[in-house]
Design goal:
- The protein is an alpha+beta fold.
- It is built from 20 helices and 30 strands.
- The chain is about 35% helix and about 25% strand.
- A hairpin with a 2-residue loop joins strand 23 and strand 24.
- Helix 5 runs antiparallel to helix 16 and helix 8 packs antiparallel against helix 12.
- It is globular and about 90 Å long.
- The structure holds one DNA strand.
DNA sequence: CAGTGAGCGAGCTTCCGCTTGACTT
């Protein structure tokens, strides 16, 4: 039995560390937190100084029992959870849950996984920092109170099963308010003027592409300018060359890794984390949930050697970056390759690509600046005061650009790259062509998953371990959707001067194409409005930053955590109670207009099952009619005509064999109903116009398919059937379905085979969620 | 994933941060 038990948070870390320590040490992992507030109630006794009710988490009971057993026989238990607020709390919870005696317990910390760092930590144990633990308790209790008090308000006032929280509600706010700004935005057009000029060198022509230093608001003004250019002469008024430089970006943190993987590899935030976790578990990269730019001394020196041997001494520059992120806890290193000498790795395509990106970014961060030379050439027009400007950029020394070019979120950034031909002041140029092109101002961009993470990090909201889950939560709740929306067409004008002739042309272009962007839903907008009206203090972008300051005071021992919570909770609870009692239910109800036939009002509002339209009001004699909005409709944009269309369904299509056929749109798309059964229509069928012939065709097709559904049944047990489904044959027993192994022929299966297959363990259900619209 | 088609009624839902699983004699 080992004399020493070391407990860390992550099993991969445990494995590595065990290799550093001798036989006297057993290293185990707690798998993160082992206890949490009870889930069935508030979990906090608000009448008793906010005493938390901690429970060993269901999925941690086994590991706690195992650790307890090991701890009882060990001479010393070393608590080596991370050196941050949560890590300190994990150690404290372990002391409580494992019932550790102070005399044989040591708290140690390190923030890089190297042998030296671990051995040094063992030599320098420190007492548990109870103030830091209290700061974590304050954080935990505050989040619980906010979440479990606000969510029930939403259940009653908006819709059941909704949620609110310190982090998720701000994320929704960002998306909802950005969309409002975009709706309000008016695009203005102006005319950008570009000219191509010819430079002749050694009897070869070079084109100098330049842009006028002024834009014209109106088409006439642009025309006036072009007229002036007819027969004008063009000369170079100045040539300015100045050196500049570019420095590499720091190595990756969770947030920057997610952003760059999104831009360069097209990975979603969750995909990045899944692949990074695989790399981490196979020992290829350091820990992937970090907010630190720090690299260990060992990493710095191996990077240095690597760069010098691969590229040469002049490419190397040791750099240590400092974090400026709000609320960073810096318990880990930056994300880097474990072995920097490995330029690439074995693995699947995603793993290889992500690893390569991490390797390049890490290496580049330790390389020298790129030296550039920027040139501005001004071209004067003899008949006008405006000047054309040509910009060029030449790389004099690549530096870090040799391995890594960071991409940007800016979608139109093409200006001033490349070399210019050598030109001289007062040189006269031939003009080849000048065009005035109508350009439009752009609204602020919608958030992608990755730019939302970037914004949240800037605001200090959320942690590396929660960025991906937060994005998933606000989609699960139906507050936002991740969508690609097609652009629209618009026309723009180009006026061209060529060969002394001015011509004008209308062209068309596609604009507003949005790829994988986050859009708010009606529910998201409504919940945001509601929370902003009543709880704007919690939705404030600075709320987290402000409470973080108080957590810091608690951590420094200058504040008592229960007092901080009390100051927050007293007014908050009064507000919650008041709203629950006195506030009206919100539905976002809006009068769209009047139905011409009946003269009844048509409303759009949020109902129990989502957005819907309503015809007429409820009174003693009449019930209003309701109809749900279609998937591509929203409360914000639906028109009266579209709403009236919704009431036309279900529509009588006709009679077939003495039974009526009706057509409507349901949760799963358009369908026809015949007798008591439903038949899905195709995407190309419109229930408003579908003919009786087509409806019968769809019905007969389905009936035909159903008749072929049954492959085999058994007299001995009518419960068991072999059926043909959408994904091939399967076994149905009662209400349960089972997959047939690939090597078996469905027709040949016996009853015994079926029973045997049904006893096989089932694959675990996917953790994914349905993108419900209800 | 194995088949669905609602209408504001008896039940339940929810937070943020740590960390990975995938039951068994």
């Amino acid at each position: 039995m080992a004399k020493n038990l070391v407990i860390v948070e992550s099993p991969a870390k445990a494995k590595t560390i065990e290799g550093f320590l001798g036989k006297e040490f057993t290293v185990k992992s707690s798998f993160g937190h082992v206890r949490d507030l009870s889930k069935n109630d508030l979990g906090v006794d608000v009448t008793n100084d906010f005493k938390p009710n901690y429970i060993i988490s269901q999925d941690k009971k086994k590991i706690v029992a195992e650790l307890k057993k090991l701890a009882s026989t060990a001479e010393v238990v070393w608590l080596a959870s991370d050196e941050d607020r949560e890590g300190e709390a994990i150690s404290w919870h372990l002391i409580q849950a494992l019932d550790l005696k102070e005399s044989k317990t040591r708290r140690i910390v390190f923030h890089e996984i190297t042998k030296d760092a671990i051995l040094n930590a063992i030599k320098n144990p420190r007492p548990l920092d109870v103030n830091l633990v209290d700061a974590q308790q304050a954080r935990r209790v505050l989040d619980r109170l906010v979440g479990f008090e606000l969510s029930p308000v939403l259940w009653r006032k908006v819709k059941p099963s909704l949620s609110a929280g310190r982090v998720q509600s701000v994320a929704v706010r960002l998306i909802s308010e950005r969309e409002k700004e975009i709706e309000k935005f008016n695009s203005i057009s102006s005319f950008k003027v570009v000219g191509d000029f010819i430079v002749n060198r050694d009897s070869k022509d070079y084109v100098l592409h330049a842009e006028l230093n002024k834009r014209f608001e109106k088409k006439d003004e642009a025309e006036v300018f072009l007229k002036k250019c007819v027969n004008a002469s063009y000369s170079i008024s100045s040539v300015e060359t100045k050196p500049s430089k570019k420095s590499p970006s720091p190595p990756f943190t969770t947030s920057t890794l997610q952003q760059e993987a999104s831009r360069k590899l097209g990975f979603s935030v969750s995909k990045t984390m899944i692949v990074a976790q695989q790399l981490y578990e196979s020992g290829k990269i350091t820990y992937m949930r970090t907010d630190s730019y720090n690299l260990s001394d060992m990493a710095l020196s191996t990077a240095k050697n690597e760069i010098i041997s691969s590229f040469g001494k002049e490419y190397q520059q040791t750099r240590q970056y400092t974090t400026k992120t709000k609320g960073a806890q810096e318990a880990h290193e930056a994300i880097r390759p474990t072995y920097i000498s490995n330029h690439s790795i074995d693995g699947d395509v995603s793993q290889k690509r992500l690893y390569e990106m991490i390797w390049k970014r890490t290496i580049a961060s330790q390389m020298s600046d790129a030296l550039l030379e920027k040139t501005n050439v001004n071209i004067a027009v003899s008949s006008a005061s405006e000047e054309f400007v040509a910009r060029g950029e030449v790389i004099k020394f690549e530096g870090f650009l040799k391995v890594y070019i960071e991409s940007t979120d800016d979608e139109n950034d093409e200006n001033g790259k490349g070399t210019l031909p050598e030109v001289f002041k007062d040189e006269i140029l031939d003009m080849q062509e000048i065009s005035a092109i109508e350009r439009f101002t752009l609204h602020l961009p919608r958030y992608t998953e990755a730019t939302l993470v970037k914004k949240l990090e800037e605001l200090g909201i959320g942690r590396p371990s929660t960025y991906a889950p937060t994005i998933s939560t606000i989609q699960k709740r139906g507050y936002v959707v991740l969508e690609t929306r097609e652009g629209k067409e618009r026309s723009y004008t180009t006026i061209t001067l060529k060969n002394n002739k001015i011509s004008s042309k209308n062209n068309t272009e596609i604009y507003g194409y949005e790829k994988s962007k986050l859009f708010p839903t009606d529910i998201g907008n409504l919940v945001n409005l509601f929370l902003m009206e009543h709880f704007s203090d919690i939705l404030d972008y600075n709320f987290t930053a402000n409470v973080e300051k108080e957590f810091d005071e608690i951590a420094e021992g200058n504040k008592i955590w229960n007092n901080m919570i009390k100051e927050f909770y007293a007014p908050f609870k009064i507000k919650v109670t008041d709203i629950q009692k006195n506030s009206e239910k919100v539905s976002g109800e809006k009068l769209l207009g009047i139905e011409p036939e009946s003269g009844k009002n048509v409303y759009v509002k949020l109902g129990r099952f989502g957005p819907m339209v309503q015809l007429g009001e409820a009174d003693e004699n009449n019930k209003p009619r309701f109809a749900g909005l279609l998937k591509n409709q929203s409360m914000e944009t639906i028109t009266l005509a579209e709403a009236l269309d919704l009431f036309k369904l279900p529509r009588k299509v006709g009679i077939y064999k003495d039974e009526e056929i009706t057509a409507a749109i349901g949760r799963f798309g358009p369908y026809v109903k015949y007798g008591n059964a439903f038949y899905s229509l195709f995407k190309t069928d419109d229930p408003h116009t579908v003919t009786l012939e087509r409806a019968i065709e769809v019905i007969e097709e389905k009936l035909d398919k159903d008749s072929k559904k049954l492959i085999k049944e058994f007299d001995k047990n009518p419960e068991v059937k072999i059926l043909n489904g959408r994904w091939g044959a399967y076994i149905a027993i009662g209400k349960e379905n089972y997959k047939i192994p690939k090597d078996k022929k469905p027709e040949e299966l016996t009853l015994e085979d079926c029973i045997l297959i049904s006893k096989q363990p089932k694959k675990p259900a996917k953790r994914g969620f349905r993108k419900g619209n209800n």
